[in-house]
Amino acid sequence: MPKVGIETIRCASLVQATIAEIGSQGSLDITVNQIARRAGVSSALAFHYFGSKDQILLSAMRFILSIYGAEVLRELAGVRTPRQRVEAVIRGSFAASNFRQDVISAWLNFYVKAQKSPEAARLLRVYKRRLRSNLVCGLRPLMDGKAETAAEGIASMIDGIYIREGLGEGKPDPERATDLVIDYLDRLMGVSI
Amino acid sequence: MPKVGIETIRCASLVQATIAEIGSQGSLDITVNQIARRAGVSSALAFHYFGSKDQILLSAMRFILSIYGAEVLRELAGVRTPRQRVEAVIRGSFAASNFRQDVISAWLNFYVKAQKSPEAARLLRVYKRRLRSNLVCGLRPLMDGKAETAAEGIASMIDGIYIREGLGEGKPDPERATDLVIDYLDRLMGVSI
Amino acid sequence: MPKVGIETIRCASLVQATIAEIGSQGSLDITVNQIARRAGVSSALAFHYFGSKDQILLSAMRFILSIYGAEVLRELAGVRTPRQRVEAVIRGSFAASNFRQDVISAWLNFYVKAQKSPEAARLLRVYKRRLRSNLVCGLRPLMDGKAETAAEGIASMIDGIYIREGLGEGKPDPERATDLVIDYLDRLMGVSI
Amino acid sequence: MPKVGIETIRCASLVQATIAEIGSQGSLDITVNQIARRAGVSSALAFHYFGSKDQILLSAMRFILSIYGAEVLRELAGVRTPRQRVEAVIRGSFAASNFRQDVISAWLNFYVKAQKSPEAARLLRVYKRRLRSNLVCGLRPLMDGKAETAAEGIASMIDGIYIREGLGEGKPDPERATDLVIDYLDRLMGVSI
DNA sequence: AATGAATGAGGATTCATTCAT
DNA sequence: GATGAATGAATCCTCATTCAT
Fold this sequence. Notes:
By secondary structure, the first copy, chain A, is mostly helical. The first copy, chain A, has helices at residues 6-25, 32-39, 43-50, 53-76, 82-93, 101-114, 118-139, 147-167, 174-188.
């Protein structure tokens, strides 16, 4: 059984605190002190572990992407048909652990950050590529030749729903979100409803 | 012929400089000095005219929204059929004056800002409401009862494309964007391609 | 009949505005813009006439001192006895045109200013010397040898009452103030009450 | 033996530096940088401990008032008769630790500040009330019914001497000050000299 | 005479970051 | 491993002052 070092615990709780703080402030303009206070440690410790504020934020971003990845993976587990694969990606995108105000808020802010930080941009590119490849992979057998475009449409819609929900006042509604995208998928596949 | 006062000129150039600066920095974390320098004036003058940095940013946001509104209006000018109305909204959204790296970058940042600033949130709500009402208005005659959902799908896709292009490395491609959304519109209307 | 030039009018109204502004703000931390706005002119004009903010403040100080001097002079007009002379100074100090919240506030602030500005210190010294000489002049025939000390006591009491009223919440009460000092005068002269 | 934390030390030295700086500048228009430099720390630390410039100034004011209070208390220690009580207050007011150029300068500036800052006004009211109650308490047995007025006269004279000395070029002379007020007290009590 | 336009210099305040303990 | 103490650099904002018109 792996013993979790104190370092791992501290880092994890700082990352969690970062996401929570971004969510509660609705902005990346959070101070290291705020993060540290929320995590119940001193800000100096945050620097001790992460070296810089930027690294803290990037770690939070990585964490969010990994959660997302795990969620999609979980959905992909029992998949048999291509269609199910596409649906899995969609469902994973709107899983309860992702599709939350604070996470969306952080997500949105990372989009912004990616415009300045190469590392953030890289992470986001990885996510986009993975999403796309999953979608294309599932769509290719279903459509003749239009898989790329279809994937782009679906991905755009997912991102759009995210951003809109991040701004919206109410709680994100995963069901509605999923239905909307799957309806699009249906139409892409030529199934009239 | 309307004489433009120097105040109008300065305010306009400061707003332009703000958008340009946001675009070039890819972030709202720009200083008033940067804006002022780009506009060729002192930062004190920016404060003289706008009172606070926030007002400068909000003015820039208002400007972008007004450009967008004008663009949509222009597209709506010659419209005869409901279908054309929906297309007009889509085309307006991807018009050359909106669908530019710097504007998208500013747009994205305003989404973030709206999470903290009530005034920014209000402006964004106005935009969303107008977009939605235009879409629903055009879609209602075309679909039976599903207009609201369809509008949401289209709006989400537009926003998603925006955010993706803002991040993308290449130049935004309005044609591709328009095609993607119009294809979705076609499918929503049950026209198989 | 002397025609008052526009310059004289402007200067006077700026000085008045200065005193009013100091009174209303309760502080010398007033901006030239505030003064100018209150006087209904542009701040540039204030500089045109006075050259610097300091000169405006000093002019206001001179004005207050001249009002005070005039008030004392008026009281000294019908004086016949030494005792009346002393009383005249006291009454002049608490005349309605001096003993007002705004003037007291300005007065207090000039005391502060005098600590840094030699010119303000000089003006205040002139005031003090005149006050003292008037008092001593009246007291000398009334007391044997103690006139200087008595004058200092009276002057201190007058200043103290000023400062206390400047801080007090209610309106300055000239009658009470006068009575208090005159009672002191009576006692100095050995008249038991 | 109480261990003094570094925080206590820093706060104390910042407060001391504040008073010294006010004294040397003769004005409350001092920058936090000046205070901090005089205290040998960075201005950021001053903010760390006090939160705002205003709090620094108010702390300095509180400190001065507490010194004054302690001084009066010390004088009140061995008091037996009412007359001694009044004298104790007077002597305390002109004690060496209060009646110093820099402290008087600060005092004067606090009077000004009190016109804008409610908290400063409150502190000053507390001081005035305490002074007055001490005086009245001592005077009541000595005079029939005139204690209140007498107290006001004495308090005014004390304040007046303060303000005059604050402005004067020479060093404050506690002896002369005390004599002047005590002479007044004598006369108030009907003792002819 | 009068002002709108413009700015440089400066001040309060914040914050990422360092370091001795 | 952990932190309290400390700061340099930056940022928003103000204001006295200048000047062309």
